Amino acid sequence: MLAGSVVGAAKLLNVTQPGVSRAIGLLEQRLKYALFERRGRRLVPTPEAETLYREVEQVYGGIDRIAQVAEDIRHQRIGVLRIATLPALAQWLVPACISRFLSTRLDVNVFVQSLPSLQIAELVSRRQFDIGIVEMPVNRPGIEVEQLEPIDFSAVLPNGHRLAASRAISMKEFDGERMVLLSQHSFVRYKIDDALSQHGVTPRVVIETPSSSIACALAAAGAGITLVPRWTAEEYSSSGVAIRPLKEPLSSQYALIFPQIAARLTLATAFADELRAFIKPVSRKSGK
Fold first, then answer.
1. pLDDT of residue 55
2. Distances (CA, A) of 106 to 40, 50, 109, 274, 277
3. Residues with Cβ < 8 Å from 263, sequence gap 6 or more?
4. What is the DSSP letter of 73?
5. DSSP 1
6. Model-wide pTM > 0.85
7. Widest pairwise Cα distance in the chain
8. Of residues 257, 276, 270, 273, the one with CA closest to residue 73
9. CB burial class (10 A; 0-12, 13-18, 19+) of residue 102?
10. At the topology level of CATH, where does 78-149+253-285 sit?
11. Burial class for 45, CB neighbours closer than 10 Å (0-12, 13-18, 19+)
């Protein structure tokens, strides 16, 4: 019907001319009516063939659509991606990465939510999210963990603070300073307290909060000094704070987690690659 001849149909289907003629004959035998009239070398479709073709054309259109959708899925051009991230990274880093990720995937939809690491791990293990961005350590069955490069902590100080004049700050210089630290009983707080203790510093904690973003906002408001991973501090670089590296090593370990399933969602893998590529220049900018 498309090619207008047996020769054309054979070329279109990449089969022999006898193969096309045999297929037509078998179909006519099964239908019990003629589809074409032979007029010399030409095949002229019968009214029955025209009617049948109109129905078949709709089916082929649907098949072509399925093939296109399958191809779009393979190249991550369509689909839904569910991302869970820490609140500290949900302010600018992850949104910036999502924006870049979607710039070449106009028909992909993303659902993103910020949650604590343990809750992210639980929901990812139950396949309610396709990918999670957490702070280590996280140990839970049903997830796969891929660690990212460690991120150094920075001191975030109110502008005008005496220590803001330093290019880098030693832990010892925090002795007696008003500090805003993350809540006790968290692994990050344990690392901070341990680092300060090793240098003989007992922090004068005036405010505690479970959110490193809130800690930075409090530092910007003049409440005290806070210590947070550099990625979190970056968002507040123009918000009335001074961000300074620490002289002593203190870092935080982030990781990507995925549901432990036979085949990982292609979009999740693509986003993970995009995030790794995105954070490399961020780490270089931060002095890593």
1. 83
2. 52, 39, 8, 16, 20
3. none
4. H
5. -
6. no
7. 104
8. 270
9. middle
10. D-Maltodextrin-Binding Protein; domain 2 (3.40.190)
11. middle
**CATH fold of 151-251, please?**
D-Maltodextrin-Binding Protein; domain 2 (3.40.190)
Instruction: For CATH 3.40.190.10, list the domain ranges present in the chain.
Output: 78-149+253-285
Q: How far is CA 49 from the centre of its chain?
A: 50
Alpha-carbon torsion (238, 242, 245, 246), positive or negative: negative
Residue ranges, comma separated, of all CATH 1.10.10.10 domains in the chain are 6-74
**Would you say the C-alpha torsion 163, 165, 169, 170 has a positive or negative sign?**
negative
Residue 170 confidence (pLDDT) above 50:
yes
- pLDDT tier at 219 (50, 70, 90 boundaries)? very high
Which pLDDT tens digit goes with each residue over 94-120? Answer: 999 999 999 988 889 999 999 989 999
Instruction: Evaluate if residue 75 carries a pLDDT over 80.
Output: no
Q: For domain 6-74, which architecture applies?
A: Orthogonal Bundle (1.10)
Residue 80, C-beta contacts closer than 8 angstroms, at least 6 positions apart: 108, 109, 110, 111, 267
CA dihedral over 163, 166, 167, 172, signed as positive or negative: negative
